[in-house]
Amino acid sequence: MKKIGVKVRPLKESDRKIAAIPALQPGPIQTLYVISPPDASRLLRAACVHVKTERHVDRVSNSKAHMPPELVGIRWTDPESTGYMDLLQAELFANEGTVEEITHAVLGPHGGLYQARCRLIVQDTTADLDYEAFPEFNKRWGMLLGLLRLHFLDGKRDRLIRVQWWYKGRKRFSPTATANIDPDPLPQLKPYKRETRAGKYVTREVRERPGQIRFRSKLMMAYGGKCCISGCSVSQALDGAHIDPFSGAPSDHPQNGLLLRQDLHSLFDANLLAVHPDTRIVHLAARTLVWPEYAALNETAQLADPKAGGDSYKPSHEALKRRWRRFNRDT
Fold it and tell me: Is 240:225 a contact under the CB 8 Å cutoff?
């Protein structure tokens, strides 16, 4: 029998938006408790994760779902872990064998993205994720001990049909945990088109609407939980920023979004920061350059492309052009 692993459930407050933390002040951003080894970075594009606690499941709906080209999602539905989704790279299961250390993502219900570390064992039609191999790392996130087992339709391991969770110390897999398999957490989308009605550029929303949470979640998955300008990976310090101003549901298209550290989002909304639509180089208004941290980004930093989701998650060139014209007009 395989070793029992460790599974996580974050504290509820860890997914809440934090309005004022040291990472938001100008200065270097620290990533807490996250050390991504080279192989983990190579294997996982979603580098920051929230490790959720609940047991993994014996019953799953959508059992015939196809594995997507990049990501597969396991969305938990039992009462204590509703809304949390494990994000796993499909390529992890391409070959049989053991990977001694990987880090995978879990998306929280409010868009938080965190890390869990495990040993992966792939054999025939199953894959075991053993979290017990890294107890110190995982316990920092409040994880429970257990084993996540994935069942595939056949030896190709390109279609996930069932998942199970085994608590440490139990004699069998849990019969109570439930989850849905999301075969494509980042589906291909139609190109973004700006709504004709006018919208206003406003500062960051204080109270998040449900659509804003989904918008941020998609950007967190696409950019691997990292600011596309600074590379900051502190989940609570990241926002989904609209390029064209919000004017209704179509504005929440990922092509109309950037995942930004909160201070950069504020500068973007205040029209003190823009991205050249052709070169993708970041430009800041002169008044911000008195801070060395912003001066270091000006005309040097380049907008990072999404790490997952393909072209339908890359920022709209036309939206960046409109924002660039406004930046030049106002500054």
Answer: no
Asked whether 90 and 66 are in contact (CB, 8 A), the reply is no
Q: Which residues contact 236 (CB under 8 A, 6 or more apart)?
A: 14, 16, 17, 18, 21, 23, 112
- Residue 210 pLDDT: 52
- Low-confidence residues of the chain, pLDDT below 70? 1-69, 142-144, 184, 187-188, 196-211
DSSP state of 62: -
Q: How many CB atoms lie under 10 A from the CB of residue 316? A: 21
Which burial class, exposed, middle or buried, applies to 243 when counting CB atoms under 10 A from its CB (0-12, 13-18, 19+)? buried
Q: What is the dihedral of CA 203, 204, 209, 213, to 10 degrees?
A: 150
Q: How far apart are CA 16 and CA 34, in angstroms?
A: 19
pTM for the predicted model, two decimal places: 0.59
For residues 225 and 140, give the distance between their C-alpha atoms in angstroms, rounded to a whole number.
Answer: 19
